[in-house]
Write a structure and sequence with these properties.
6% of the residues lie in helices and 48% in strands. The chain is mostly beta strands and 311 residues long. The structure holds beta-D-mannopyranose.
Length: 311
């Protein structure tokens, strides 16, 4: 019998390019947060020139979203950001801290990919704060509260010696980051052996911070992007309590298997609900946006009861 950890929404995909009032080729990888009486989503779209922008959509129930007339983040034309966002902006995450929304997104340019951090209170105006990584580091997810008096984040630098691993860093002000430490590496001879990277901003649970990450497996037919789960210590999130041995979501629906990039489920956002469920959002094949629901505690159980042995 098939045991589903994440139950896909029946109306998937929840957003496609047909729902967007301006011309785009894709709608995928979205950060989502509760805002006002509903939900707000910042999603990535490729334009015909192959570069990405970030659009915005609103919903009252977290499933049916209406896209606003204009995108929310375009590559900047001012100052330092313009140099580093020249090739586009991608994969926005949203973390709410003390009534303020912290956005982190990939900034592409001739210098590589790095991550920009911006803030908004109202999802109408945007304040770019800083470029918070150097090149070849992306997937920054900010914890939704300060830990030990400091902001904390996970990210994913890459180097040949230690390919695509997850690190943690801390900051007093969201601008200067340090005390960095590697916390998770791709599992040898496992479904995530090629790359891992933070997905949704960590979700606080009684037993630890739940980190829903993406993992990549290389096959003769190309790469497969799946989602996995890890649990980090609440007081010291650089400590991993357990990593689920199995993935929690893999490409299965036709729009996850085939599209702009085949065989991809990629998350940038998950929203915890008061009733203990978690709404999870993912891009399908880098083409459409999908959603599903899980019991948060069931995913935590997987990290504790079915952990991989060799972390
Ligand atoms: C990653 C990122 C994601 C994308 C994924 C699959 O490296 O570029 O934005 O969804 O590849 O193509």
């Amino acid at each position: 019998m098939k045991k589903e950890i994440i139950k896909r929404f029946r109306g998937n995909p929840i957003l496609t390019k047909e729902d967007v009032p301006y011309e785009v080729e894709t709608v995928h990888n979205a950060g989502v947060a509760k805002y006002g009486d509903g939900y707000v989503m910042l999603f990535r779209s490729h334009r015909k020139n192959g570069r990405s922008i970030i659009g915005i959509a609103d919903s009252s129930d977290g499933y049916y979203f209406t896209v606003r007339e204009k995108p929310f983040i375009f590559p900047s034309e001012k100052g330092i950001f313009s140099e580093y966002e020249e090739y586009g902006v991608e994969d926005c995450r949203i973390s709410e801290i003390d009534g303020e929304y912290i956005l982190t997104y990939s900034a592409y340019s001739r210098h590589g990919v790095r991550v920009a951090l911006a803030k908004t209170k109202d999802f109408l105006s945007l304040e770019r704060v800083a470029l918070v990584t150097q090149s070849d580091c992306r997937n920054v997810v900010v914890f939704p509260e300060k830990i030990g008096g400091r902001y904390a984040r996970l990210d994913r630098p890459h180097s040949e010696i230690s390919p695509w691993s997850v690190w943690i860093s801390y900051s007093p002000d969201l601008v200067h980051w340090g005390d960095s430490k590697v916390v998770m590496k791709p599992g040898k001879y496992r479904w995530d052996e090629m790359k891992i990277g933070p997905g949704a901003p960590p979700v606080k649970t009684e037993r630890g911070w739940l980190n829903i990450y993406h993992g990549v497996f290389k096959t003769m037919d190309g790469a497969i992007y799946r989602l996995g789960a890890a649990l980090h210590d609440l007081g010291d999130p650089s400590k991993i309590i357990g990593i689920s041995d199995d993935w929690i979501l893999q490409p299965e629906d036709p729009w996850e298997v085939t599209g702009y990039v085949h065989n991809v489920v990629f998350t940038c956002g998950a929203v915890p609900e008061k009733d203990g469920t978690l709404k999870i959002y993912w891009g399908g094949a880098d083409t459409v946006l999908c959603a599903g629901e899980a019991q948060t505690e069931k995913i935590v159980d997987l990290c504790i009861d079915n952990p991989r042995k060799d972390i």
